[in-house]
Amino acid sequence: MFRRPARCGAGHGFHGRMSCPPRGVYNRVDRRFARGKAGSSVRRNASPLFRLPSLDERADALKSALVRAFHVTPADVRVVVSPYRICPLGAHVDHQLGMVTGLALNQAVLLAFAPSPESRGKEVAALSKNYPGKVRFELDSIPSFRPGDWGNYLRGAALALRQQFDGRLSRGMVAMADGDLPIGGLSSSAAVGVAYLLALEAVNGLSATVAENIHFDRAIENGYIGLRNGILDQSVILASRRGRLLLLDCQSENWRDVSGLKEGSYQILVVHSGVEQALVSTGYNQRVAECREAAKQLLNASGRRAADGAVLRQVGEDVFAKHGAALPPTLRKRATHFFTEQARVRDGAAAWMAGELGRLGRLVTESGESSVKNYECGSPPLITLYELLVGAPGVMGARFSGAGFRGNCIALVEPGRAEAVATVVGDGYARRHPAEARGFAACVCETDDGARTL
Ligand code: GLA
Question: 91 CA distance to ligand 1 centroid (A)?
Answer without folding.
Answer: 7
